[in-house]
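User: I'm curious whether this sequence folds into something compact or stays loose and floppy. Could you predict its structure so I can see for myself?
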Amino acid sequence: MEKERKNYVGYEYKEVTADHRMTALLMDGYESFGWEINGSLPESTAGGRFGSRTKTVLRLKRDRKIVNKAELTRLQRNFEACVSEIETLERRKTSAATDYALILGVIGTAFMAGSVFAVTAQPPHYILSILLAVPAVLGWIMPYFLYRKAAGKQTEKITPLIEAKYDEIYEICEKGNRLLY
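Assistant: Here's the prediction. I'll summarize afterward.
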């Protein structure tokens, strides 16, 4: 029985933490730069503005003596910058709309406080209370519609930018893949 000897391969390792929605893109992208997926683990949830987002830790490894390592590393940095820009643009879709809705809700709450103070004053000012309650209720109802409208407009503006970044990522990954093979 003759045993076949394996040649030693030295690896470099990398861990990448990403939003679970970007995991597939990152896995495909890093493979274009010579990285192999060594496993992935869900990480604890990180609190966002209005909920939690699940993060995933990707464990990667790559041969230390890979050909064209310097160029692959440069392309990888460009890839990571594009992914970061996409994540920023995705957040920008709703961040302004959220801010507008919150401001309108706070204004509505201020009108409601004025309405309450008017009705609890001595003597009570019922007419003033009603006049302040109307914009207060509108200030609590309208944020939903304002949010939807503002988010829709922002999404229309940002979607082409995101698509352009995805196209740039595909070109970068294509270049990296050509350097590997």
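Summary: The chain has a mean pLDDT of 90. The beta strands are 11-19, 36-47, 52-63.
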